[in-house]
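Notebook, p. 212. Picked up where the previous page left off. The plan for this session was modest: take the two constructs that came back from the sequencing core last week, fold each one, and keep the raw output in the notebook itself so nobody has to go hunting through shared drives later. Recording the first one now, exactly as returned: residue sequence, then the structure token string.
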Amino acid sequence: MTKYLISFPGAAMDVPVGELEAVGEAARAVVLEAKEAGAWVFGGGIDESVPPVMVDGDGTVREGTYPQTAQLEGGYSILELPSYEAAVEWAAKFAAACRCPQEVRAFHYDPIS
């Protein structure tokens, strides 16, 4: 089975404030469905109040991030699924719940992860 990243940037989720609670409930329902199906690996949203840092091999920590990931934010789910088509089906469920398109990416297979 392959692990898939299903994600969206925070800015893509343009939901009126009064509907945010319903979106959260709908998204949690999809997460619960994925857990019950045995597909759920991990998920969550990036906490934008915690600034990113870079950590070198010697443990040195410095503020900042790679330039190409400076805008990394939003919601992420990792599911382990039998096919790309199944990942697209789950992405559609998350898209409906979160009211925004979802990006699907496959992880390289690693037999020990």
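Okay, moving on. Second construct, recorded in the same format:
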Amino acid sequence: MPRWHEEQHIAEGGRAVTILSFGDAATEHARKVLPAFPGRRVDWLRLATNWNGASADTLRRRLSAARVGFRLVLVGGEAPVLSARAEAVAAGLLDDEILPITIGSEARTVYCAHCHSTHLASVGIGQVTACPTCTVELVVYHHVSRHHGAYLGYMFDAEER
């Protein structure tokens, strides 16, 4: 199973690149990416640190205007980068058209396999977090869903019940 954070490449070519950076901490990292796209039109949008409705609307507008040759670079914390990546995949972008660059993973988005909700948690892979929606204690599994932009969480004592 490929690891989403190991996908540190983007397809060659392309005519237009949009860089989305999340928060001030991502600014310097995004600035270092700019020279990688000489001769192409590059837009750089600086967004809030966390993924929110305004971030989603901004990305959706950009994706609706995208044409063949569009590339997307996402720079920021793991949770907003994964959320933006999921939004881009849902809009039809291919993995090779998206470059995710994470600069921290202090909070992870966890998908509850029991009630199908997601939540942010400061938890490591293999650790347990409680789902705020259904209160089930979830083990955070290493699998990341491209569609939910979240790590899979499943009931930690499911085999014992």
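Notes on construct two before I forget. The mean pLDDT is 90.
Flagging for discussion at group meeting.
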